Every structure is written in C-alpha cells, then in structure tokens.
Amino acid sequence: MKEELLAAGVLPEERRLQVAAVLRRDLRVRVEDLAERFAVSGETIRRDLKALEDRGVARRVYGGAVSRDADEAQDAAFAPPPVPFPPVTSSGTSGRPTDPDLAVAGIAAVAASLVEPGETVILDLGSAALETARALPLTFTGRVLCASVQTAALLATRKGVEVHLAGGRLRQPDLACVDDVAAGFFDRFFAHRAFLAVDGVDARAGLTCQNLDEIPLRRAMLRQSAQCYVLAESAKLGAIAVGRLAPVADVAGIITDAAAGPAVVRALESAGTRVIVAPAAPRLE
User: 73, 91, 122 — which closes off a domain?
Assistant: First the structure.
C-alpha cells in the first residue's frame, strides 16, 4: 500500500522534498502521477523536476524524470569497496541492522534532497546521519564534515566528495569522536547545512540529548552551520532527555516521519521551527 503524501496546501519546497524522496525510492516518476497525487498542474510538477535536476537529484525524461542515482549506478559498481566497518543500527550500536528502519530511511532521503551541489555539510553521529550520507546523490560533489568513522568511511570512496573527520577520543562501539578535540574541530569550518540527531524534541524543553558528552559536539555543529536540521523519528517528538542542547527555534527545521502526531507538530511549529514530514521508505522484501 502506497503511503499518503500531502496534497493541498503544500509549499513548493515541501512538495519538491517529497518528490525527491519518491524519486529516490522508485528511481522513476511520471508527471501525470505526481500532478494527481499533489493536486497541482503538470506544469507545476515540471518546474519541480527542473529544480531537482538543477540540484543533481533527477534527470528529466519524456513524461517525467529518473533518479540520477540510477544513471550513476554503473560507475558506482566499479568503485572500490567501502571500508568494512560494521553498520550502525537505529539504537546507535554496531551489528547487523534489522530490515529495515523505514522511518530513518525516509527521513534520510528527505535530508539528502536538501543538499545542493558544492556545499559543505556537517553530519552528526548515529544511524540517521549515516543513512543521510548513504542517501546523498551519487552526483553530489562537495565537502562533508563527520564525527563518525563509519560515516566518513562510507563517503571516502565517492568521487568528488572531500571528507573531513573529527579527531579526539574514539568511542566504542559506534566509532564516534566525542571529546573536546572533536568539538573544536568544527570551529575550523563553516558549513552550509548541518544534520543533527538528538534524543528528545519538545516545544518547551527544546532539543535534548541523553549522552552529555555529545552536547558540546552538537553545539559546535549548530554554531558553525548556516542552516541546521534535526533528524528525529516521531517517537522522539515530545520526549525530553537529560541534557539540553538548544531551543527548537535555533534550527531551520525538524525532519520526522509520517507517524508524527498533528498536535506535537503544531506545538513545534508554534515554538518557531519548521516540521518536515517524510514519506515512509518502502519495506524491502
């Protein structure tokens, strides 16, 4: 069963984010189908596809568009294999992931579609940041600043991607750099966008973290980026962890999944941030 996407009243950029997520999932979209789904004209959808093509996400074809990932898949097949670190599960521990964390995959697809070619991007710790790195178009070129060895290793073989890894103490089992040296690393840069992962997102309490040693690191990421987005599954909305990071109004937006409750979404928007609801990624058979 296909998930419902927002139709009437969707802002152009919101619609384009959702189209990008569908394109990444299905590899091909048709103008006619998208126009019906979003209740807009075919010309509006064509403008959306042109904007996604300019970002390196899509390639327009007769009647629709195809994913640039599909165009580049053959080149990727001949790339050197990634460094064999164990994958990160949704709990942040190493091991074989379950099949699959659909909420995180959908959030990551939307996050990756926000990134423009040539940008400098900060990726936080955890599975959502790792999946965002995986979801970046194969055509993406730019600079990525990482605090996770696993995320850095995933991107290290990508052509045109300059990877910088924070140093400092390496935490096990997730291979994350989390001390003052790692936090100071980000002060050397200024990024176009940062994607943070937190443990709690509440309209009054703000953004909160369970691991206190991650707070200075994330504050540096937030401080050194022009736009910062929080990657948060719906279960984290309304939750409050022990360590306060920042008010929700300090970030450009919160990307969450379709299970987010309307009341908590309205509360967060009233608190001064934007909430982007990602369509669910398909379950792999």
Answer: 73
For 45, counting Cβ atoms within 10 Å of its Cβ (0-12 exposed, 13-18 middle, 19+ buried), the class is buried
Q: 3-class SS at 208?
A: strand
The model's pLDDT over 4-50, given as tens digits with 9 standing for 90+, comes to 344 445 678 878 888 888 887 778 888 988 988 888 898 999 998 88
How far from 165 is each of 103, 122, 171, 231, CA to CA, in Å? 27, 10, 14, 20
Nearest CA among 224, 285, 280, 271 for reference residue 108: 280
pLDDT at 76 over 70: no
The token duo for 222 is: 């937030």
Distances, alpha carbon 135 to alpha carbons 17, 25, 218, in Å = 13, 10, 22
Residue found under tokens 């937190």: 198
Expressed as residue numbers, the domain containing 46 is 12-73
Q: Is residue 3 part of a domain?
A: no
Question: What does pTM read for this prediction?
Answer: 0.69
Residues 130 and 245 placed together within one structural domain of the fold? yes
